[in-house]
Structure prediction request, 326 residues.
Amino acid sequence: MAEANMAYYTTRDPLGVTGDFITAPEISQMFGEMIGLWLAAMWDGAGRPADAIYVEPGPGRGTLAADALRAMARFGCTPQVHLVESSPVLIAAQRERVPAAQWHDTLATVPQDRPLLLVANEFLDALPVRQLVRAEHGWRERMVGLEGERFVAVAGDRPMDAAVPARWADAPPGTIIETCPGAAAVVAEIAGRLARQGGAALLIDYGYDQPATGSSLQAVQGHRKVDPLADPGAADLTALVDFATLAGVARAGGARHLGTMGQGAFLGAMGIAARASALARALPDRAELLAEAHQRLTAPDQMGTLFRVMGLAGADWPAGIGFDKP
Ligand code: SAH
Prediction:
């Protein structure tokens, strides 16, 4: 999955109508603006630290960064920009929208000595998952076979029982659990930095916030689900993000977990309805498109519920709009 996605992302811009899939920031500027408002409010509540930096892993075309930074600037929040991206094609697209940014291959080289205003949208879902399957006699890693069955439980003397959380230990044969060590490592690093450097982070993805079983691996090409093994490196591979586990990882790493909520409720709390009306008044011929985008981003049967927003913060930072009510 790691190799296929590396090949996939480094050779194309997958976003948009002519690409393979569309993300929230590409649906409407309102998405990035609401993120920018949240980050600016956090920054303001923390005493407006002048050295705070904007950090975004997996920034796609740079659309979210451009929209968020524009909204933040209206509050006097004009942070230095650090983008973490491995795709040369996407770096070129990001440079057009955020020319003053600095680029990094990994989070490791992002400055270690100042507060972070971090957002990642549809980044964690692209990181490789491992799957364990309950076989007749205990748990095994599930891997890709070269012939015959395409997904196979590793045979031989490598039981994985010790790696399975207690609640699933006695699950019936055939049960699959997924784990994403890459996402856990990224969240652990972000949490440690929030603890040491201060700051706030929003991690947004489609996923679940209660423990769950089953394979969620999927491949998308040309806006359609395709067979994940049919054409590796030419389709986007994703898995649902396990926010339950990541909240624990964030806490263990020293960050405050502000909460995890649906994207619709989060954008609602940030005032997306008022923003949609204001834009529609200013651009009457786009009113219908704006209403449609608002629906798509927030409706429970569209992106409003399946997409989750996880808020994290350093010790002395505010609770965060949307997460501030129990
Ligand atoms: N956040 C953007 C793009 C989402 S697509 C949006 O919402 O539109 C996933 C992004 O993560 C791309 O920018 C891709 O290049 C990046 N990405 C995927 N796997 C990565 C990895 N292993 N390391 C760094 N970036 C990665």
Observations:
- The pocket of S-adenosyl-L-homocysteine is lined by residues 5, 9, 15, 23, 25-26, 58-60, 64, 85-87, 90, 121-123, 126 (CB under 6 Å).
- The mean pLDDT is 95.
- DSSP finds ten helices and 15 strands in the chain.
- The two ends are 38 Å apart (CA to CA).
